[in-house]
Amino acid sequence: MGGSGRVTLNDVAAASGVSRATVSFVLNNAPNQTISAATRERVQQAASELGYVPHGVARALREGASRVVVLNIDWGLEGNYSRSYVRGLDDELAAHDHVLLVRHGHHTPQATQQVLDTIAPRAVLRFGEPYLTGHELDDRGGGWRDGLAAHAALQIRHLAEHGHTRMALALPDSGTPLAEARLRFAGQTAAALGLAPLASFVVPRPRSAGTGAVREFRAAHPGVTAIAGFNDDVALRTLTTLHDLGLSVPGDVAVIGYDDTEYGELVTPALTTVHIDAEAHGRLAARTALGLDTGGLVPVPARIIVRDSV
Prior knowledge:
Blueprint: H1 9-16, H2 20-27, H3 37-50, H4 55-63, E1 68-73, H5 80-95, E2 99-104, H6 109-119, E3 123-126, H7 129-133, H8 148-161, E4 167-171, H9 178-192, E5 199-202, H10 207-220, E6 226-229, H11 232-244, E7 254-256, E8 273-275, H12 279-289, E9 303-305
Parallel strand pairs: 1-2, 1-3, 4-5, 4-6, 6-7
Antiparallel strand pairs: 8-9
Helix pairs in contact: 1-2, 1-3, 5-12, 8-9, 10-11
């Protein structure tokens, strides 16, 4: 048996009379391997009799947790921010010998507890939490320097720089808790710039419902000349409804998106939007979860992707 006292793949191979590679294929249920049922049974029996524990599980038992970090991402948060955030988080965890597991959807406390009970992760993270909570005091994520507030302000300032003084924020119909924060930050920016109070409305699905909502909003707020989308998805829905109403963009109404999805440059007019690179936010989250120094990581400033819709 190995000098460390832990049963290894080599021990199982010697006991079952097969190669180490064959043992690995059997115990990992590797696909496309022509291993007979008798050999599989012999390997599994030897592993059981020797008390073999896979290395990752053994390490988890020894350390009290696995080297897995779980990231929960709610539906509707996909975009350039999430892609770059996950890339940074994954790369930083890999550099410190940890693995990232991403879970999409609505996550209940019960579902999270099931994950904790099953794999004993090193940490469970909520996607972009410092950024999404909009805290003004922790400017690594949320706040007016490099977070949700700053990026919401970037949208409004870009429209103001193009001469728009009456604006609206177009919201999704999903009831996201971020809507209130975005309205607050955008409204504060409009007020600071001396603009008219910011209006808001929901652009629902399907297309006909969205067109009706925009028609009603335009009738109630004829002076609004620019619309900031909650994200690119809402901005693209708004572009479609304005086209259906016979309005030109940006001639009659300017539209700006948020978070630079790949579809914005494929439509006509191409969508002006806010590009946010969150790789540093992901790396910060990884180092924080692992209890490492977070110094030296500076997020890339968000910027406007200038296209044709403003």
